[in-house]
Amino acid sequence: MHSAKVPLQNPPIKWAEGHKGVFNIEVQAVSSVHTQDNHLEKFFTLCHSLESQVTFPIRVLDQKISEMALEHELKLSIICLNSSRLEPLVLFLHLVLDKLFQLSVQPMVIAGQTANFSQFAFESVVAIANSLHNSKDLSKDQHGRNCLLASYVHYVFRLPELQRDVPKSGAPTALPDPRYHTYGRTSAAAVSSKLLQARVMSSSNPDLAGTHSAADEEVKNVMSSKIADRNCSRMSYYCSGNSDVPSSTTAPRPASKKHFHEELALQMVVSTGMVRETVFKYAWFFFELLVKSMAQHVHNMDKRDSFRRTRFSDRFMDDITTIVNVVTSEIAALLVKPQKENEQAEKMNISLAFFLYDLLSLMDRGFVFNLIRHYCNQLSAKLNNLPTLISMRLEFLRILCSHEHYLNLNLFFMNADTAPTSPCPSISSQVINELFN
Q: Where are its TM segments located (predicted)?
């Protein structure tokens, strides 16, 4: 509190206790736009520099960053995300995870060099998940899952979209995806698009589109023309057909095309040390990310009616096999330790069962049944305690048996003509009865 000089009074006034203050005023800045955290501020600012044309050097807080130092500084900011204060991290969690997932699948060309942030982004996600689970201030559901992460996967997560080429001058311009952007550093196009979508959405259900009025159409046409002009003015070199970029600006572009589910599975496989331990400790989160990204991939690529064996690559299926084998080994290792960590082993066992349960709806079912067989065989070979083995297998199979097609897929038929047809044929499973031997 700043004391103000009391003006002279006429007639004189006597102040009680020597003009002592009666109360103090404390002003605390509250904002839903600015992060008020240096680590988040730096991360979002550097991400913004990748997404748009900027002039170097750029200023981040009290630091000036050149184009040559951008890659190094961005990697440092990704690593330091876990050091952010909990409150702003929670408030901007969906933005942080969206940006990290975007960086994991879209390596950039910065100053003529390819920069790959996949490993750094994945390890940062793992560290954030660990921090949120360990926080006593955040709620968990009855299964011990962090409610924020569960809500993010269920309601927010969507496959990151790769940057598209900027259209040439005069070409029709589609409005960018207005779903999530950084906190107030969006371009005018994103802001106008977000306002337009807010007007045409149903007030009761955001997923249901409302009716478009003539005024909305007029505004949309006007904004579209302005967006096209702005894009061509900001990237005039591309709009004019010139591929050369001045040295004072950066033109990050995709170095290669990746699928998010493949990259996530790969990072889970190659992770080591504390990162791998944390991944499988909170396996439910990464399993649900995998399943949802797989489902969205099938939908986006219009593979719902294609053969299941062709939906995903052989390399991805190999990674899934490795993940299931590693998790099964980890479950067995926890159960045979002197200080049996039964609770953690049971959680991992249930998470793995639900993961395979979901895979039955997405992948080749013969492949999934082989994973189930390997799980049972591997657990039987490593566990000598019969009651524990039976308990784990029964809980695992109880979850799988609740799948709507599980029993039908295990029925025996005299020949193929008597078997019911499947809209998505799978490789025939010939070893399912071994699960119950």
A: none
